[in-house]
Amino acid sequence: MAALAAFLCLTGADAQQLPALKVSANHRFFTADDKPFFWLGDTGWLLFSKLTREEADQYLDTRAKQGFNVVQVMVVHSIKEVNAYGDSALTGKNIATPKVTPGNDPTKKAEYDYWDHVDYIVNKAAEKGLYVAMVPVWGSVVESSKIGPEAATKYATFLAERYKDHTNVIWMDGGDIAGSLFNSTWNAIGSTLKQLNPNHLVTYHPRGRTQSSTWFHNQSWLDFNTFQSGHRTYAQDTSKNEKLHYGEDNWRYVNVDYNLKPTKPTLDAEPSYERIPWGLHNIKLPLWTDADVRRYAYWSVFAGGCGYTYGNNDVMQMHKDNDSKVGAYGSTQMWYKSINNLGAQQMQWVKKLMLSRPYFERVPDQSMVAGSLGVKYNRLLATRGKNYAFVYTYNGRNFTVNATKLEGAKVKASWYNPRTGESTTIGTMTKGAAMKFNPPGEQKNGNDWVLVLDSI
After folding, report:
1. Which fold has domain 2-354?
2. The whole model's pTM is what?
3. Where in the chain is the domain with CATH 2.60.40?
4. What PANTHER family does its record include (predicted)?
5. Which of 74, 164, 238, 400 could form a disulfide with 370 if both were Cys (CB 3.0 to 4.6 A apart)?
6. Yes or no: is domain 365-455 CATH 2.60.40?
7. Mean pLDDT (the chain, rounded)
């Protein structure tokens, strides 16, 4: 315990440091030490409040070994926020007065407070190579407590000063809420964090089926956009606004953000979670699967996204043994079991593929598909560099490719398996405008493949 106490006494400057993330020169991606950084996130929303130090170690260690490099976490998700040790985040349920006690020795109850526990987890994440995207206060808290700009500025100042030296911290303003609600509060938080932490990236987490760019794209504090494509099926998306009637087509949000000026990176920060019911609220409906989270990943990234955030119903709420048998949205498994679900294990392969070729030159290019792009589950998504191209099919249907934009006279073709990360060579062939390909296996949803073309 003495060693642990000594570790907790480390400041952000003294603890394990990761390279600060920056927006790339072309404003499409992220870099770390001028090297490509592909955001592979996990929604560990209740990490700070639900898990003990030992449990947090297990969670972070597992996600790091699975290839994740970002964890999205709520700092305060309830005005009555209390962590696993019974420590309150706030004094008098007032966001402007975080409850901080002198010292941080975990063996002394009077010293080790809520914020010391957050410090421990942020430092431990850095030790394992993980960045922490911290949501200062969840949208429902701001709405129910009617938190205004003045209190929000005081709270954001506290956060910025406490974590200014933690290079693995990313600020994610908002929290599942439309930016039009309490707009001045969100702008106060975002601008305060950016002013006091100029070297930290700042973004906004919107409500389901919306994107941060709708309200904040032109704000100087917003470094990159995120969107929440949400958990609804095509049939459940009954949006009155036809322009937002996207259903499961999360690539459409990327298309919107990709064409905005000024150019900023964008990513799906909350698609459908593995093991959560279609549409969230009716727990008798089927659950989203590993095939679905793969589809959301490749669709959004190939459309031009700078990364992707995975989510799991049981893990995001850290469903534990002492919780109700059935958690929110019908959660029935414990977080420490669901953390190894298939979808979580398969996410590393999208990151591996994207970093396997020249990264910063990559662009989305649907003209690579010769013929029908397809709708819904037949949709094909294509992306390319100068000497390579990737085409994703979710159901393994036959398709035709126009490879004339690639350099060279010939291409080497191969199939990349999103379930295993394995590549199978098809062969070398003359580059053409109508090259036909037949993915392995029978056509069915979840028989997804990536066609890889490399110039020769």
Report:
1. TIM Barrel (3.20.20)
2. 0.96
3. 365-455
4. ENDOGLUCANASE (PTHR37836:SF3), LMO1036 PROTEIN (PTHR37836)
5. 400
6. yes
7. 96
